[in-house]
Amino acid sequence: MSPSLRRIRLKGAWLLVIPFIWFATPTPQTLAIGGVISALGLLIRTLSAGYIHKDDTLTTTGPYAHTRNPLYLGSFLLGLGVVIAGANWLFVALFLVFFGTVYTASIRDEAAFLAKEYGEKYEAYADEVPLFVPRPTPYRGGGVDSRPEFSAAQWWRNREYEALLGTVAGFAALAARMYFRGG
Known about the structure:
This protein is an all-alpha fold. It has helices spanning 3-12, 17-23, 28-51, 70-86, 89-118, 120-128, 152-157, 161-181.
């Protein structure tokens, strides 16, 4: 993935944080619905980060046995939950456009990298496992040297605690916005 695309993906969303909080109109209901969706996203990201060993092996177990991009799926649900919690539908639309544009390019770049790096192993995996929407049964393809178990230490090495802390901070800001707005 190109450094500029990564920078846009990781930093671009932060440009909208202040306007998002400012224009948010959260209610207890939108916070609850968004919280459930974001929690599911965090769970998927947590499991994914505990399995993946970036730049080391082709991961095809755990969440990666259901979708080739579970971290992005988790990010999608996490972000969608946050913008739903904010109850400003313009930001929901902006999120969908941003995610669709930036993450589609990221997914395409990563697929090309993995195909080059792992060749036939990746191609066999990609033929069986969907790009984004999970398959109901796990992939059990052979010949891939993926690590089979979740590791909390790997979760930590992948710095996934940052997603957890960011989500908690986002919901705290939305709850404060609701409280001070009188919602």
